[in-house]
Amino acid sequence: MAGADYVLKRAFFALVTVFVAITLNFILFRAAPGDAASSLAKCRHCTKEFADALRQELGLDKSKLEQYWLYLQDLAHGDLGLSFVSRQPVWEELSGPLLNTLPMLALGTIIAIVLGITVGVVAAWRRGTAADWGGVMSSLVFYSMPTQWLGLMLLIVFAGVLPAAGVSDPFLEFEDPSWWQTVVDRLEHMILPALTLGLVLYGEYALIVRSAMLEALGEDYVMTARAKGFRNWTIVRKQALRNSLLPITTLIALSLGFLVGGAILVEAVFSYPGIGLVTYEAIFDRDYPVLQGAFLILTLSVVLANFVADLLYFRLDPRIRTT
Amino acid sequence: MRTRILLLAVLAMAATVLAAGCGGSSNEAAPPPPAEEPAPPSEEPAPPGEEPAPPPAESEAPSGGVEDGGLLRIGTTGDIDSINPFVAFNTESYQAFVIEYPLLVEYDEDLQFTGDWAESWDVSDDGLVWTFHLKPGQWSDGTPLTSADALWTAETVLRYAKDATSLLAPFLANVGKVEAPDEQTFVITYSTPVASSLVLTNLQQFFILPEHIWSQYDTNHGRGLKQFNPEDELPVVGAGPFVITEYDKKGVTIFEKNPGFYGTEANVDAVGYQHYENEDAMISAFMSGEIDYLEELPPNVALELEQDDRFVVSRTPSGHTQNFIFNSNPNKPNNRELLDPTVREAFAHAMNRREIVDVVWAGNAEPAVNIVTPYSGKWFNSDIKPEAYDLDLANQMLDDLGYTRGSDGTRVAEGHPMSYEVILPQSVQGVNRTFEIIQQDFAEIGVELIPNQLDDTTAFEEIGAPDWKYEKFDLAMWSWDGYPDPDFVFSVTTCDQWGGWSDTGSCDPEWDKLYIQQGKTVDENERLDLVWQMQEMAYKEKPYIHLVTLPTTTVWQAGWTGFQPSLIALSKQPWITPGKTG
Predict the structure, then answer these.
(1) How far is B279 from chain A (nearest CA, A)?
(2) Partner of B78 at 20 to 30 A CA spacing, among A58, B99, B188, B286?
(3) Which of A33, A42, A171 has its CB closest to that of B89?
(4) Which of A40, A45, A84 to mutate to test binding with chain B, by most B CBs within 10 Å of its CB?
(5) Are B120 and B37 in contact (CB under 8 A)?
């Protein structure tokens, strides 16, 4: 019963957060300088009638309150509206790029997890040695690096080795590629943006893992295990690491939500046609519906990640279940 | 904004001003007719300042040993914003339309007009009736290409000129009537005299569409034309050397060779036009051989690539100028001392153009003096020289005006410190470094400049604020791209452009009068006098201080030849002549 209460409470807070975020998105974009109508009309010499017709067609002639109400109504029906620029449904504008972004984020996260846990564990286990110092320093360096700068550096370093832009080689089709060639091509294009994200995240993960591991390694049960004569690796794997997983798991869940937003910088650097790039362009076009849709997805991903973290905590930490 | 979007295309918009100023003038006595055939090449462009004149076009003519076939991969940071000509706005889109659709005329390598689809043309004695004799041809789907297509396109554009087809209507400004007496003849009758150079400049962007495809979308007062997405029915039906077979605005657009093209067959089988969001990524892709040709290259990168035998760097003159803008709205409420031509002249003497050229552009630019540049050939007034960089003189001029320095060294004008905000749009290349140089020199003359960096849309709106009344801003920096004909760049400082392309708020009836007059002066020598006179006037009144004029810098892999960068978006040739060397 306590569990159901906990889940319901968390779900309610998540919904409230989403509603507040939707409202803020609506207000923020319209409060920003620049007029959507003037940029979308793209014809300052058009007649007033033409501009009015355009505004009417896009619903910009209505009051802000009315626009907000219509936006909520449409959202309730799962309709994100039409892009001001392409006049295509926003979901169609976003779904393709989202499908490009997700595998790249997944690869980036895997890189971060594998590197972060490995370096964190080694640094904690070999505390005070060169391995520890190297691990901590590299984590700090990558953690503090601006994502876009790291991306540019990787781009320069790997110029000619890995593709610099896009999600695939647009000219590959002229060579009648096999299925395998297509997959390899996609992966090659994904590596640099994923590596950029992975390296920035790795720093954070490694530091947290190290810290959690150090705490665990100082516990009595580790000393007992040592006294029993267990091998080092067994102690790390079965005792220390397993008990350090709590903060690591929640950290990963939380950072997953922010990753979607972090994709904006990486995708702009690598011209990677994902949701981040669409958002970036929509800002310049004052394409409110696409911006609202993109930010809704970002909001949902953060809220969902938080919700998942809460549930994981509930599952992993018995203390929460008993309170 | 203006370097990225299609200002060039709106060149013709200026003719709308002409039309406005010509109301009821169609019965005036017509000036003598222009030559019946395309004019012979004009004299060489005059030298800019004291520098030697650049060659008219550093294009590489196709030489022997060019291989047929293959794929040309072009990289750009611009994008084809739409492949619907009624919707598109960006230069890259217009370049695509030049390739895809027939045009009556285009530019040749000397930047003179030559026929594209038109074999030849005649002009009536009164200069009003232009008769184009067309080459036989067909659309890429096999349908015959005839004057009926030109007639339908022109009539449709004129019918919805104020609404759905407003983006293309300026190219047919002042057209009273169009006719197609037979399949190979198209006749345009103007309602008022228009300078022949202006007629041809406009017609070079009159894209002729296939009636059998587009007429079905002429619904809802033409709005159906705007709503049609040609990418839904690929390949796009065209009649140029290439047709679009794939379109991805933020990815690659593929153009495949059209075997039925009425002109010279292209060397390559296909052209891939790849968009890059990031310049560094594009250059990296080029250096690693993923791309064959880059259309725009920053000067510092050009210097680096020049040292590498694998690449060929080309610089061709262009009409691109970067400038320092004064709010010239005669009714601006604040800091009205900036309207004084003497203050502006003093400011101009504090502009170290040579340092800007050397530091910001690594020597790959020329000091500019006017909005019309040597790229425009005879239209450029070579008698006018840039103001000498002389801080003592600038100080003296401000002293003479009684603007003494306050305790902090900043002068006081009309009771307030001479401290001004300068709007700096994000997309203008080198704007921050240029501003720093100017800011430093202005401090020496007791004028404080404060940067205000904004994204392009916001910057343009701040300049026009509030509500396109141009009352708020003082100073800004931006750039213009001009066509060889100066009409468009003159139009941007007319009163009519308030809320349009004006970035100065300039409104001078005398200027407008001259602008209208030059537009309808059919005699080229008479028009030349007016054009030079207008440049003198602009130099004196200084709505802008022009800083530098930049070349178009392009680069291609050494294994390629035949590129003609000076003709990009002006002719079909830049995509016809390139090929791999044998």
Answers:
(1) 9
(2) A58
(3) A42
(4) A45
(5) yes
pLDDT at B80 over 80: yes
Task: Compute the nearest-CA separation of A184 from chain B (Å).
Answer: 16
Taking residue A157's Cβ as centre, other Cβ atoms within 10 Å add up to 11
Residues 6+ apart with CB under 8 A from A75: A22, A296
Q: pLDDT tens digits, residue range A300-316?
A: 888 888 888 888 777 77
First to last CA, chain A: 12
Phi first, then psi: what are they for B65, rounded to 5°?
85, 20
| pLDDT tens digits, B498-545 | 877 789 999 999 999 999 999 989 889 999 999 999 999 999 999 999
3-state class (DSSP) for residue B482: coil
For residue A269, give every residue at least 6 positions away whose Cβ sits within 8 Å of its Cβ, in sequence order, or none.
A148, A151, A152, A155, A193, A196, B277, B278, B280, B281
Distance CA B198, CA B166 (A): 19
Q: Which residue of B has its CA nearest to A171?
A: B272
Nearest to A174 among B71, B281, B455 (CB): B71
Best probe of the A interface among B13, B91, B278, by most A CBs < 10 A, is: B278
Would an 8 Å CB–CB cutoff place A39 in contact with chain B? yes
Nearest to B94 by CA among B10, B165, B191: B10
Q: How many residues does chain A have?
A: 323
Whether cis (ω within 30° of 0) applies to the bond prior to B235 is: yes
> Rounded distance, CA B428 to CA B4, Å?
9
CA dist., res. B142 & res. B210, Å (int) = 11
Does the distance separating the beta carbons of A268 and B250 come in below 8 Å?
no
Residues of A in contact with B170 (CB under 8 A): 45
| Residue A96 sits at the chain B interface (C-beta within 8 Å) | no
Tell me the pairing of strands B144-145 and B175-182. unpaired
Residues of chain B in contact with residue A280, where contact means CB-CB under 8 angstroms, are 277
Decide if A277 and B455 are in contact by the 8 Å CB cutoff: no
- Whether residue B467 lies within 8 A of chain A, CB to CB, comes out as no
Determine contact: B232 vs chain A, CB below 8 A.
no
Residue carrying structure tokens 């002409």: B18
Q: Return the amino acid letter for A262.
A: G
Q: Among all chains, which residue has been given the structure tokens 């690539």?
A: B305
- Mean pLDDT across the stretch B454-467? 83
Q: Is A44 on the interface with B (CB under 8 A)?
A: yes
**Residue partners of A296: CB distance under 8 A and separation at least 6:** A21, A22, A25, A75, A80
Residues A40, B33: Cα–Cα separation, whole Å: 41
Tokens of A63: 């009051």
**What's the distance, Cα to Cα, between the start and end of chain B in Å?**
41
Query: What local confidence, expressed as pLDDT, does residue B323 receive?
Result: 96
B248 and chain A in contact, CB less than 8 A: yes
CA distance A243 to chain B (A): 43
- Which one-letter DSSP state was computed for residue B311? E
Confidence of residue A41 (pLDDT cuts 50, 70, 90): very low
Predicted pLDDT at B426: 83
Q: Residues, chain B, total?
A: 582
3-state secondary structure A227-280: HHCCCHHHHHHHHHHHHHHHHHHHHHHHHHHHHHHHHHHHHHHCCCCCHHHHHH
Mean of the per-residue pLDDT values for chain A?
A: 83
Q: Please name the residues in contact with A146: beta carbons below 8 A apart, sequence gap of 6 or more.
A: none
Q: Which residue of B has its CA nearest to A43?
A: B167
State the pLDDT at residue B35: 31
Q: Please answer yes or no on whether A165 and B270 come within 8 Å at the CB atom.
A: no
